[in-house]
Amino acid sequence: MRFFALTFRGLEQIAAAEIAELADTTVEQIAYRRVGGSTADPRSLLTLRCADDVFLLAAEWQGIIRPRSSLALMTQLSQQLDLAPVRNQIAQWRKMPKQPLFSVTASFVGKRNYSVDEIKQAVAHGITDRTHWSYTADDASADLNIRVFIEHDTALIGVRVGKLPLHDRPYREQSQAGMLKAPVAAAMVRLAQVQKGDLVVDPCCGSGTILLELESLYLDAHALGGDLVIQNYDLPFAQWDVRRLPLPDHSVNCLISNLPWGEQVSVAAPLDRFYHELCSEIARVVAPAGRIVLLTSTPELITLPNYLLEQQIEISLFGQTPTIMGFASKLNLHKTS
Prior knowledge:
Layout: E1 2-6, H1 12-20, E2 25-31, E3 34-39, E4 53-62, H2 69-79, H3 84-90, E5 101-108, H4 116-131, E6 134-135, E7 144-151, E8 154-160, H5 182-191, E9 199-202, H6 209-217, E10 222-227, E11 238-239, E12 252-258, H7 271-285, E13 286-296, E14 307-314, E15 323-329, H8 330-336
Parallel strand pairs: 5-6, 5-7, 9-10, 9-12, 10-11, 12-13
Antiparallel strand pairs: 1-3, 1-4, 2-3, 4-8, 7-8, 13-15, 14-15
């Protein structure tokens, strides 16, 4: 079956690489915020960590343009939409009523003369006309979610593989200031190329999203996290100042962290001085063969002269465009060349 996975802007290639590792699954398209492909086992898509959500493709509509006339067209096309094959496929691995309660979610690229809510209503009206299924605006209570993803004049119509979005992790019961999105954390962990037995440290762990994703992806790694203010007392995090870490020199194999941006989470010094002291401490504790992956909104303040910047990926997050930076040791690269 054909599918499309949605992800954050900038993470498309990382999500595609993860999808390509699945058995009997082929990546066929990498586009803005999405990856398309085909799979013989849609259930395997539920294991993805770097995708925000994933859908079985039900239809592809053309002519969905900017004017409001597109709303009537979407209702008309929804009345012709045969969702039974996808609904029956999903019913093979999770309980599904014959007349499911469905929700609609929507997004579009560029400007439109209509809103997301209007798209939802237009599509819901057409589906209820054809199927007599019941519509709910509460996505969490729905049996099926219908996704409308519009780019240029094309709309992809999908049905969510899982009951809940992929980004809705079981450990994310409540949201906190500065909490990192789980798929972004998973992408950072993949970029760090964690190996069995590695000591992986997040010195600004906040609520622990990076280390929780690490645990899901690399069970044989050793995780250590800490922060100035502990946000998750259910996990064994240390309370420390990232500029004075209680760790031996060169003891860390991988350091992965969402650094404070000085906005949602404040810092105790001017940001440029804070980052200078932080970078010095990172360079002290990371092993010569170690790797560093950082997320920051001020990449120009990151100074790690003994490390080579291998990846620099701008992403969209919280309405901003922070950068993921991946470093490897110049010393290690020189020894292996």
